[in-house]
Amino acid sequence: MDRNQATGLILFAAVILVYSIFFTSPPEPQLQEPTGEVISSVQRNPTENISQEVEEVDSLQDLRAQIQYGVFASLVKGNESEVTLENDKMIVTFSTKGAEIKQVELKEYKTWDQRPLILMDNESSDLSYQINTTKGSLSLNEFYFTANTSTSQVDGESVSTIEFTAQTSSGKITRSYSLPNESYVLTKKLELEGLTSQLVDTNINIIWDAKLLRQEEDIEESRRKTNINFFKSSEKYDYLSQSKDETSEQVSEPLKWVSYSQRFFTSGIIAGNQFNSGSLEQVTPQDTLSVKNMKATLALPLENGKAELSYYFGPNNYKVLKRITPGFENNVDMGYFFVSWVNKYIIVNLFHFLEKFFNNYGIIIIIIVFIIKLALFPLTYKSYVGMAKMRVIKPEIDELKEKYKDDPTKQQQEQMKLFGQLGVSPISGCLPMLLQMPFLFAMFFFFPNSIEMRQESFLWAHDLSTYDSFIKLPFTIPFYGSHVSLFTLLMTVSQIAYTHFNNQLTAAQGPMKNLGYIMPIGFMFILNSYPAALSFYYFVSNMVTFGQQALIKLFVDDKKIREKVDASKVKNANKKKSKFQQKLEDAMKAAESNKKKK
């Protein structure tokens, strides 16, 4: 109990004591023969006493409110009702008690079990604005407001507005919300007029405590993709750790925005200017009633009694988020820096372009594979030719291995010399493939986080954003699961077939040959619970690559390659070693010398 509450309690007790001593009526004397007038008066007294008692209780409540809330006491009495703002994207419900958001529903989406998609409601989320007054910390959620709705045109766009007003004897509190048509952004303005003298500081404390509602079937995958993101005013994006069940962070420097980002949807709060500081925490619950529990405490500065901010309630669509505020697109995980550029500048734009012409996302994936493979075809061709050269000179390499089988260093030196004479590079077949790797890894991040795939069916997959459960197993296989994904199985078979074909082209031997068969099996376990769209993309990519190499084989003759290699051998017979070759040989000799000394 704080000092203000103790003082109020003492005063309340004093009032009761004074009332009982001076205002309680003495008992009526008993009369032997009451007249009709007296009987009538007695019959009326119970009702009058009850009315008097109600007035006295109201007076005491008003007194207590005056003690606790001061000039804000008149705002804690009223009737609660609901008011809504609605556009093509969402329905936002407010309460006149607190003038705060009560529920947000996205109209374009449904949950995994086809219920209305509610991003937040008053049962799972508590959003409170607190002011520090001379009477202590008071929550605006305790005050009753009157609401006025209106519609206006701003830059040719329809904007719906609700203005909530709470009037006191000293001034008023105004909270207004604006929702443009076809927008996921709700703008908020807050003003304390004539009341700044009642404040002990110029910050409003925003406390947003939320239990994020489950929207997807696979709750474990949802939890892996759910966390608090935030953006500092120094233009630095950051987030709370996703690997811990419970984590928190105190941010002392100014913040621009904070978001509760789930796999496909985000709820965010964005400062008009900045939040002075913030305290953030997230907890993964043991039950499945919520995905994660989040809490953010933010200090919003008042300037001349005014503050402005906005909320984002909507999908994790990269192009949409990029237009909201700087750094907000980071709520979509596009991968590490060396692959994110592929998604941000190529795949996203290509995907949205194809959406204009096709509404079947399986077909879009196939077309994307063909476009990427066509663009990378020169690299594929060079890779094939490089492997073909290594294949035709294999007899010479085998001869050197046999000749210098007891001297590995000399063997390597002679191989490098042979490569230089024949004009062959041992990495000529690998380098083009290496340059294609960013595209393969980019898809590993794009499809699991692409809301475009959500609840889109293709063939037997009812939802491309999750795994296609072709067969349900009566048991669970460690690291695999209790289901069989057919797209993942097809991807594995195609990868094994491609590896077999590739080994024939390169004449691979030893561990490298077996590694090509082990990797697809490993990926089968990894990708079995990943989105069907990803496995389907890799399957189609394998088949197209297989077809490309089969086509190239028809036009690349090993005899002609052999002729070119022999021509290079004659041409480079008296050619001096390059500086790189010389340095490489010197390094090999030094390594061998150190080995002998040991």
Automatic annotation (TrEMBL):
Keyword field contains Coiled coil: no
Annotated compartments: Cell inner membrane; Cell membrane
Residues annotated as transmembrane: 334-354, 361-381, 426-447, 477-497, 517-540
Keywords: Cell membrane, Chaperone, Membrane, Protein transport, Transmembrane, Transmembrane helix, Transport
Major localization listed first in the record, in broad terms: membrane
Topology of this chain in the membrane: Multi-pass membrane protein
Residue ranges of domain Membrane insertase YidC/Oxa/ALB C-terminal in the record: 361-553
Keyword Protein transport carried by entry: yes
Record InterPro entries: Membr_insert_YidC (IPR019998), Membr_insert_YidC_N (IPR028053), YidC/ALB3/OXA1/COX18 (IPR001708), YidC/Oxa/ALB_C (IPR028055), YidC_ALB_C (IPR047196), YidC_periplasmic_sf (IPR038221)
Limits of the Membrane insertase YidC N-terminal domain: 83-346
Subunit structure: Interacts with the Sec translocase complex via SecD. Specifically interacts with transmembrane segments of nascent integral membrane proteins during membrane integration.
HAMAP family: YidC_type1
Purpose: Required for the insertion and/or proper folding and/or complex formation of integral membrane proteins into the membrane. Involved in integration of membrane proteins that insert both dependently and independently of the Sec translocase complex, as well as at least some lipoproteins. Aids folding of multispanning membrane proteins.
Family (UniProt): Belongs to the OXA1/ALB3/YidC family. Type 1 subfamily.
Name of the protein: Membrane protein insertase YidC
Biological source species: Belliella alkalica
Name of the gene: yidC
